[in-house]
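Interim report, section 4.2 (structural modelling).
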Amino acid sequence: MIFPFFRGILPPHLAPVTWFFVVVNLFVFIVNLPSHLASQAAVDAYIKDNDFVRTQGNVFSQFVQKNPGKYTSLFNAMSRNALQGDWFSQLMMGSYGARDRNFVEAAGRFQASGDAVALARWRAEYFDFRDAQAASPVHKWGLSLSRPRWTNYVTYQFAHSGFQHILWNMAFLVFFATFLERLIGGSLVTLTYLGAGVVGAVVFAGFPGLSYSPLIGASGSLSGLMALLAVRLWDQPVRFVYWFLPLPGYWGFRELPAWLIIPVYFVPDVAGLLTSIPETGGVAYTAHLGGALFGTAVGLGLRFGWLEAEEPPAPLEESF
Amino acid sequence: MADFVLLVPLISLLVAPFRRRFEIAILLGDADAKVAALGSIALGAVVGLVGYQTLFVNLWAATPGKRLLGLRVVSVWTGARPSVSHSFLRSVTWCASLFFLLIPWVAVLSNRRRRPWHDRIADTEVVAVDPARGVGEPDPREAAVASSLRAAGVFALCGFATSVLMNAPETGERRAAKAAAGNPFLCGQVTETHEEWLGREGTAPPRLDVALALFGADAVSERCLELEADYALWNGMASPAAYLAKALSRADDAENYVDYARKACDKGPREPACRLARLLASGGDRDRAPAAAGSLGPLEIDELLPSLEGVAPAYLRVYAVRELVRGNRFQEALSAIEGGSPHRKLGYFFARHRAQALWGLRHLNEARLAVKSSLEGLSVVQRTALAGWLCSAENATACGEQAAASCDLLRRAVERDPAELEDPETAVAWIRGEECVAAGRPDMEKMRKLASGPAVRLLLGGIERAQAGDASAAKRTFAAVAGDSEAESAFWFEAQARLVATVEDEGELEEIQKRWAEAGPVEPGWLRLGHALLRRSESLGLSKRTLQIAKLVVATDPFDETLQKSVVVWAFHEGDLATAGRALDQVSRGRTTGQPPAEPARALASVAEPEFERVAKLVDEKRPSAIDPPTGRSRANPKRGAAP
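Predicted structure of the assembly:
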């Protein structure tokens, strides 16, 4: 285990802008939590009903077979398997269908043919399921490829899908951004947070993916801040914390060059992008890399003097 | 160790395309592609790791991670950077540790010079550039952590190996299924039967009809039937039969069942699938139709029988036979069985029901012949099951010469393959058969060798104690089997039947009788326990209770002439003239069904023939005035066997 530690978590009076972002993120999360949980529970009730999901999988499979050109060869093959009777493919296609823009828009009108009893039950429940899914704050705040609104390019950066999601993102934010704020000032941190988020979203929208699943989370913005730090400091040593065993000598702090952040955090994103199957979704590697691109640009700007860092409000006690 | 920070991302980049292929293979259920992708991932990782290590160790005497941490890899002999071959050897053994879940690396914590096996094999050592930062010999705490890590690692390795071994055959099976059938997701047994049928007769019924027939004969699972039904329904082959199959595959979900069964009747109530749905709804077979199915408009078996003559689907015949044998309508069951040329896969079902019907009619020799002649075409498991059924039917009442001969089939089958004893019904039939053949003194040593499973061993232990003359110990052992709520019902019935023989107290007898009556005649071993109860209650002189039990037994086994005659006499003495009259009717009806019973072997000798003749005359005399005319279908036709 190795994690960039820098100077630990700097308190709000030393990094007010960063803490402002943390508070906004937490505020958005807490305000949305009740409706998020309610919508999640409603959707889960349908997702746990295997008959519902399998029927939806069969309907989506027929939909794919009717529009083979709109879908990848993987979806075409999976839909064939589902219709041949493979339960696993039916379940998978059922959940992918719920996240496919074309299907979500057309499912209500689509003339599926098959098990009339199962279809009647599914139709009776489908609209409730779709409404429950759309009622989630994730859909209001997140950037959905099916109906992109320009405000969502900013709002998505402040919405999270669960406790773990927000916990990790905020942990990275306080370690990286409080340190950066002392280094380059609050306005550049703000610029990078928002700018990297927007560029990440633009790159995300440029790649194919699950078209109905919205993009959410601060990770695009965070990638920007991390890339900025790595590029700006490059071979200057920064403090990492490592931990192998709970024995003295097997954990501690070590100064390592800042560029290490790139192999540690961005190479896995590239690998993830190469590994991931876009139509099955998951982590938005494209948004991470887009954010990192923006952060790199800001970092290079600082290095070459096109941008000027603010003087920190109080001098730092030690050099890097 | 620090290299992992760099290596993991680099290696993951290297194997990313293979990981992607692996994920696609999982989604498409393609086992071969999955194995190939896994192999590529492993190979890519190994090549990447070995290359990285060899290169840097040989050129720099350290990998980048080690350099950052101020460490160097040196040869123990020269103290300089290792040669290419030593660097390579070190990298290969370092990689090999990965396949042992890093257990060899733990030596860093315990080896005196902190050299794990890759250092010892390659004659190398890791040293700090700045001697002040060297860590020295491991302290005892480190050694303790090392041994616990090693233990945990070995434990995890064993678990991992076990799971790999256990999952391996599954992949093979799926591959075999794929090779055998065009569609790997459908039910293989149905495909096989359908193809054989087609090959033998040139034409075959629709796939779904085959599936329904096999399901009716208990030859395929519910899951199998559901797969077939779903396939038909979602591929433009929706038919009443498909909806019925879907209903039957989920008979435990009443609402679901009724919805689908109704859909099967959409094209009219005379549609074969709808007729079957209605037949099952009225049949009372709760494994096949929930009580709520009654709303479909029940169909009596009599209405179905005429249609079997035409081109009715095979499944209708299977279910008709099922229902007829369940309802003790053996003669009609036999003609339904004769009417069709059942497929080989249905052979066991038809053979067993034919033998059951013949046995029920007390055409015992024909039943034995039927069993023997059908054994040829059956699988080993089916052969043993059929032989087991014959042996237990023979032994349900008493053990005679014929019984011993019939049970010999089963004995030979079990001696060939003792694994057959895992089936509780077969095991119980075998124990009784061995006792019968050896006239009550079977070779216990041989039996114990063949037997497996705790219940069988307990039963054998009880028998052995009884043989040794320790009646109370035997009783305790049988009580242990009967009291085990986990035991299969076949063992429960057998243990109770043996306990009943030693019961002295009427209350105890009543308790067993109550549970026996509740279990109902569908359970195997029911008749056997019924006869045991009957024998005991008669020998205790409990005439009222004897009649009570006898009435239930003859309702299930109406062609048991000896018992029917006894019922006439007992009922007459108890003043129950209605029962006596019905039993007398059944005796004369039984005589008109064909040949007289071949072997009236019966332990109940208390009713002598002259006594029966005398009472029968009296009952007949009193009949017109004293007996009410029969009411209700089941009463009017005792052949249909009023359920207890």
